[in-house]
Write a structure and sequence with these properties.
Blueprint lengths: L5 H20 L5 H11 L4 H11 L2 H5 L4
Helix pairs in contact: 1-2, 2-3
């Protein structure tokens, strides 16, 4: 299945939502740890994992400063 397929986008969208929920419910856990759990749970491709790691584990996201 291609990353650009509707099913691939839907899976990634659900993974991002799940990650967001996990950050809220487990603020004591590191984002990297939560990302790893999400990546395994949703069986993400290497490209999808790279995307999440790049955009969801950055300091800008953690501090709320999206430049």
């Amino acid at each position: 299945m291609s990353q650009n397929s509707p099913l691939g986008r839907d899976k990634l969208k659900k993974a991002v939502q799940y990650f967001s929920d996990m950050v809220e419910s487990h603020p004591q856990k590191s984002r990297i740890e939560l990302l790893q759990k999400v990546q395994l749970q949703f069986d993400l491709s290497p490209a999808e994992c790279e995307f999440l790691n790049k955009y969801l584990s950055s300091e800008a996201v953690m501090s709320g400063n999206r430049e």
